[in-house]
Amino acid sequence: MVRFGIIGTSMITELFIYGAQKVSGFRLSAIYSRDIDRAKAFGSKFGDDILYFNDLEEFSLSSEFDAVYIASPNSLHAPQSMLMISHGKHVLCEKPAVSNSRELEEVIGLARSKNLLYMEAMKSLTMPAYLNLQELLPRIGKVRKYIGNYCQYSSRYDRHKNGEYVNTFRKEFSNGSLLDIGIYCLYPAVHMFGKPLRISANGVILEDGGVDGTGSILMKYAEMEAVITHSKISNSKMPSEIQGELGNILIDKIGSPEKITLILRDGTVEEHIPDQVNHNMMYEAQEFISLIEEGTFESGINSYSLALDVHNILDEARSQIGLTYPADI
């Protein structure tokens, strides 16, 4: 049994807990929030034997849990991960796990020195539909183009436009379209095709808040290209796609894939809809818990080398569009 502490009381945290509860090795033991009453109200849905903290240092020193799931604002991910690891806790950190690759190197270095597991919570790579996609990939022949598309109008954007202070549109919290949702398109590209030779990025910086609202990345490989499109200020109904010389693969939702469609040039069309649980964050929790139980302190799926490649690309893309965070200084 792996006992978990939780940082954050948002909807994503709730979805994680519901998913993790489907894993036999999961136990929710503690919740941290700056507001202790909010922590208790949040935790009341999940049982009576949960400890509550509003002091982060006290939380990190607790011996009542072994691992932490972090879902605080982006800018807090790295310092909170460092604090938890320094006090002997394994860390599963919601994406983006850091503000920049320098922070990532520091967190990985500490985790390795402590023989603890640290993993960015990129759930899509652990989901059955994505594993199915990898199995189908050879059938479309030599890959020539990858299009990763994730454009979703943020439910908080209207509040931001009305002048409300919304941390998801503030650069001091290391937010923006690229790190919040573009990362979902980038991870599969680098996981399947490796690090590109070079990239060219574009983005629209919002006047208030200073973060990117929408953008794109063109990634050049030796024999193919990858195109990343992302937005928090517009919607897209288009799937993501991999184009090969023998056919195409469509991915319904790149951040949370459920249906993979194979279309071959000979007229073959196959829809692949693998059985998946509704609370699909179960799969990342299962990967994380299994690694701890095995005594393996780096994921073979969400590996350190993959994370570093992705975050180096994110750094370069932000540099090209002129987006810097306080955490970069």
From TrEMBL:
InterPro entries xrefs: Gfo/Idh/MocA-like_OxRdtase_N (IPR000683), GFO_IDH_MocA-like_dom (IPR055170), NAD(P)-bd_dom_sf (IPR036291)
Matches recorded under Pfam families: GFO_IDH_MocA, GFO_IDH_MocA_C3
Residue ranges of every copy of the GFO/IDH/MocA-like oxidoreductase domain listed in the record: 140-249
Domain Gfo/Idh/MocA-like oxidoreductase N-terminal: 2-119
Protein known as: Dehydrogenase
Origin species: Youngiibacter multivorans
